[in-house]
Amino acid sequence: MSYESPTPPANLPTEIVSTLNESTPERLRDVATYTEELAEHKEREARLEEEADRDQVGERPDDLPDDVPAKATITIKEINDNRYYYWQWREGEKVRSKYKGPVNPDEGRGKSPYGA
């Protein structure tokens, strides 16, 4: 083990280097543990987001709005004796919906609500 103080990475902001230099060994160990766990967490989140983006490529129906995820499904809601299509998907604990259009009586006879 060297008796010289380590050289901080060149891309580390000066205020962070100053704070670390003023910290106790115990706090530095806590910071090291936290930063390792945080780096792993951020890498995992980025990987999951990248996988989700890859899964969505090429799977979007032509009439799917940009603000509706590819995992959305079409549901029919009846309001005042009228039937309407809605895109519907889950965001965490909540179910989100976006209006698609009215249900035409013709669509019940073989036409798909997906526009095909």
Average of per-residue pLDDT values: 81
The string of secondary-structure elements, in order, is HHEEE
Binned, the helix content reads 25-40%
Strand content: 15-25%
The number of distinct helices, counting runs of at least 4 residues, comes to: 2
Amino-to-carboxy terminus distance: 70 Å
Q: Calculate Rg over CA atoms.
A: 26 Å
Which structural class matches the secondary elements? alpha+beta
Instruction: Please describe the biggest sheet, giving its number of strands, its sense, and whether it closes into a barrel.
Output: 3 strands, antiparallel
Secondary structure tally: strands: 3
- Total count of domains: 2
Q: What is the approximate shape?
A: rod-shaped
Which segments are poorly predicted (pLDDT under 50) over 5 or more consecutive residues? 107-111
Strand order of the largest sheet: 1-2-3
